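FW: tagging you since you asked about this chain on Friday. Here's the raw sequence from the shared folder, copied in full. Didn't touch anything.
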Amino acid sequence: MSQNGISRQMFIWFAASSLAASLFAASVAAQVKASEYTFLIASGFLCDPGDSSTCPATLKSTSGDSYEMSGAGRLDTQSKAVQAAGTFSHRAPNGTLIDTGVWIVNELVNFDSYGVAPGAIPKRGVTLAPQPFGRKLLPKLPPLPTGGLAAFRILLVPTSGASKTAVLQVNCALGNVPREHSVDGIQLSVDRNSGEFSEGVSGHVLFLSTQARVNMPGKPTENDQLPSSAEITKN
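HL: got it, structure written out here
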């Protein structure tokens, strides 16, 4: 093969490699911007049996009484769908148990993502070498630890007495975190003038963004196809 022929083949290979790489990068970016998340509030693997400060999440009001809360759920920022529940205990300033029960999410008010945690996207096992054109599926990424601030309207259902509505804010300090939200924690605003519980004492929170498989584009159209070696030779 002549030197010109080798150069043309290298050009084709490089162009195909660049196209494959750009398609992969665009697909990964689309996945990272997923709208679906699961989350844990001082529960599951976030809990350390030897460290009582990890679970449950504890917060106090200015008057000194406190709420202890744990739970889990999932949300979709596009459809505003949310399913979540957990347990709570309400204690007096001296530690006496006032009531205990379950909490249930009624509504997702909003969710602000801080982005995926640094180093969370897998860097190995991805090949950017040219692949035959056609409809391809990228490997499904595992759930990615993601920071964010969510606000929910919830119902507090005690084992005795009347239920109460409240707004629960849940903060996970991963990703590009605003300075004012640099610590994991929750805040609770109970309706009927029952108080603001905004002084976080303990507890970790985690959001996990979940991504479906993404289809690679199918066979390129006439306008998108790379030139053949014969066409390059002709030119």
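FW: The CA atoms of residues 139 and 213 lie 7 Å apart.
HL: agreed, and The first helix runs from residue 3 to 32.
FW: great, closing this out.
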